Amino acid sequence: MKKIIFVFMLIICGFLLGCGTGTKPLQEESQPHVAYSVIDDAGRKLSFERKPVRIVSLTYGTDEILVELVDWKRIRAFSRWAGDKEISFITREQLIDVGCKVNDNLEAILKLEPDLVVASAATSYDVVQSLENIGIKVYIARSPHNYHEMCEKILRLAEAVGEKAQGEAMVSRMNERMEALEQRLSKLPNEKRKVAVAFNFTSAMGRRGDLLDDMLTMAHVINGAAAVTPPISEHGSVTISKEMVVGINPDVFLLPTWNYNNKQDVRGYAYEVRHDPAYKDIKAVKNNQIKFVSDRYRYVASQHIVEAVEAIARTIYPELF
Fold first, then answer.
1. Alpha carbon 32 to chain centroid distance?
2. Residue 140: phi, psi to the nearest 5?
3. Are 46 and 137 within 8 A, CB to CB?
4. What is the pTM of this model?
């Protein structure tokens, strides 16, 4: 008898934490009929009869924004990277409470019976079209290039989920924290600002005008890559060569930390960079200023941009903290 009860409890737990249609109670009846319309970050108009209560998030940035905007019971699923501490700020508690992760697989999304799917410009066009063709609203969220655009992303998404005041409060808190951080960093004389070059697992990164460039600037760090790259507004990929890095001669190297496909050797890559003959005379190598800043900060896509700027500043200027 005890064994039967134990098996029954396991089934119930699996049901509650699974990605099925019964993960959370429907709440339409408790939501007032307040019609409103919003424009998403792709310039598309979405109209709502009431606040969405079965929200599926397909991006790690919108995962993080939504958990501070809405009751978690309104979130049916997080993105595939939720809970990965090297790229996501979603906590274990939040992940367990929501109980489901999903990628841009149409069948998996439909099983969740969403009334709003939050996607990105990188989400499969076919998935977006298929969802909209059957009447499911899809909100496209942007990939911001600077702090201002990040705030706009939050405010727009807050309107979409019917929580405008919550979004405004979130941005207000961000601004207060950024002002306090700026007061601390402003004590650093301009002549003592350090030049940094960030790397991914293939080359240097941090194109002029992209989000990392903006975060480095807010952290009072000079982005060495910005001087040798065209602005982000000019489309097309840019490779920052070793010769360019040598010409920059940065004070600090910032190396990647996220083993996203279980094939990246973080420490091995750091060893390669440190012992690359091309870099032997660079100040960052000679002075042992090879640093790590978690990729969840370097690729931040949410309100945690403030923490990201602080993490960069703490790494480069520990004496200020």
1. 31
2. -95, 120
3. yes
4. 0.89
pLDDT of residue 174: 98
Q: Report the helix count and the strand count for the chain, using DSSP H and E.
A: 13, 11
- Quick one: angle between helices 305-316 and 211-218, nearest 10? 60
Q: Which of 44, 35, 37, 38 is nearest to 140 (CA)?
A: 44
- Check pLDDT > 70 for residue 11: no
Nearest C-alpha neighbor of 144 from the set 218, 220, 70: 218
What are the pLDDT digits (tens) for 162-172?
999 999 999 99
| CA diameter of the chain | 76
Specify whether the CB–CB gap between 27 and 74 falls below 8 A. Answer: yes
pLDDT above 80 for 52: yes
Give the whole-angstrom CA distance, residue 238 versus residue 201. 15
**Enclosing H/E stretch for 222:** strand 222-223
Closest Cα partner for 90 from 265, 304, 319, 315?
304
CA distance 182 to 176: 10
- In whole angstroms, what is the distance from residue 181 CA to residue 169 CA? 19
* Residue 28's pLDDT band (cuts 50, 70, 90): low
Reading the block at residue 71, the tokens are 């009751």
Which pLDDT tens digit goes with each residue over 143-192? Answer: 999 999 999 999 999 999 999 999 999 999 999 999 999 999 999 999 99
Examine the pLDDT at 229 and tell me if it is beyond 90. no
Helices (H), the chain: 2-17, 60-69, 92-98, 106-111, 125-133, 147-160, 164-185, 211-218, 242-248, 266-274, 283-286, 295-298, 305-316
Cα 216 to Cα 298: distance, rounded to the nearest angstrom: 10
Residue (of 126, 157, 124) closest to 141 by Cα position: 157
